[in-house]
Design brief:
about 350 residues, alpha+beta, Beta-lactamase, 2 domains, two-stranded antiparallel sheet, 10 helices, 12 strands, globular
Length: about 350
């Protein structure tokens, strides 16, 4: 999330080009961060280097690999952005459409709820808060799985009773806004968010290990269990706000996803194109953007209760780093340090 700050770190970091040097560097960084497990893919044109570290759980001695599934948290938003681009191509929505005209037409909106557009939602400039204010007040709220029981009725109640202040046209990161976009897409296509992901992204790209459904450990074997400083924690499950952070995926699948952005134009590359710039922060359809060595660098990070992730791409150079980990350490700086040189 902090591309401007971390670029300083990136420029000063020594690059390791040989696979063995990268492996040594990777192990050293992961040890220093104290992660439980990590899988990484480094794309440099047609070459892909895969790295792994640690154990998938503290109970078993099995190491992760490029097929191990992790929670990717808010990287999910970039998939939602691609679906927004698909919906605009299909004339289902337009970036200038008002949210009030698309969903929740059977309720009375709070007069203080911001009249926002799709463009403002996908660029985090809607003025909406990071999370809905009634999240902690719902029935069966679980601090270790905060979004699991937050449903459509809860969201409608929040909209009806909203009393917050709105500061639009400034960057204000909002999981709530990203979650509402998912509902807009579902209503536009009359399909679930999970179905849309499968139809427009997972199936076309061959991402057979990826899904946004709640985890079933009885059927999913190659998965990294989330951990925090107190031990193993719950996977985060989602209901109405699934489009903000529900996807689970692997390095193998995310390499396919990253490479899809090399081709232009398509829904993936269009999602990276800058739509707005707030506080010196260029942003596309949920993708954060910056310039590195004269080239466009786009990225996003993710965090759940016990998993961390980062994806960075330089599409013009066909370069990317995908880093997935369990634990609570910030892995974004580590991902920057592993970007190939050019």
């Amino acid at each position: 999330m902090r591309l401007l700050t971390i670029l300083v770190f990136l420029i000063s970091t020594t690059k390791f080009r040989a696979q063995s040097d990268i492996s040594v560097r990777f192990d050293s960084i992961m040890t220093a961060l104290g992660v439980q497990s990590a899988s990484c893919a480094i794309i440099n044109n047609e070459n892909v280097a895969y790295l792994s570290y640690g154990k998938k759980s503290k109970i078993t001695a099995t190491a992760p690999d490029s097929a191990t599934i992790y929670e990717i948290g808010s990287i999910t938003k970039t998939f939602t952005g691609a679906l927004v681009q698909q919906a605009t191509a299909d004339s289902k929505i337009d970036l200038t459409d008002s949210l009030h005209h698309l969903v929740f037409q059977n309720i009375t909106w709070s007069e203080q709820f911001p009249r926002t557009t799709i463009k403002e939602l996908v660029t985090h400039s809607s003025g909406l808060p990071r999370i809905p204010g009634n999240l902690w007040m719902i029935e069966n709220f679980a601090v270790n799985d905060p979004y699991a029981n937050y449903n459509l009725k809860n969201l409608e109640k929040f909209i009806i009773t909203y009393t917050g202040t709105t500061t639009k046209s400034t960057f204000n990161y909002s999981n709530l806004g990203a979650g509402i976009i998912g509902h807009v897409l579902e209503k536009s296509y009359n399909k679930s968010y999970s179905q849309l992901l499968q139809e427009y992204i997972f199936d076309p790209l061959g991402m057979s290990s990826s899904n946004s459904e709640n985890i079933d450990l009885n059927t999913c074997q190659n998965i990294a269990l989330p951990y925090n400083q107190n031990g193993e924690v719950s996977f985060w499950n989602f209901d109405i706000l699934a489009s903000a952070g529900s996807i689970k995926s692997s390095c193998n699948d995310l390499v396919k996803y990253a490479k899809a952005h090399w081709e232009d134009p398509n829904i993936f590359s269009k999602a990276t194109h800058v739509l707005s710039k707030y506080d010196n922060r260029p942003i596309g359809t949920f993708w954060l953007s910056n310039t590195y060595k004269g080239k466009t660098l786009v990225g996003h990070a993710g965090a759940t209760g016990g998993s961390r992730s980062s994806i960075l791409m330089i599409p013009d150079q066909k370069m990317a780093v995908i880093l997935l980990a369990t634990g609570t350490a910030d892995v974004e700086s580590a991902a920057f340090s592993l970007l190939p040189t050019f």
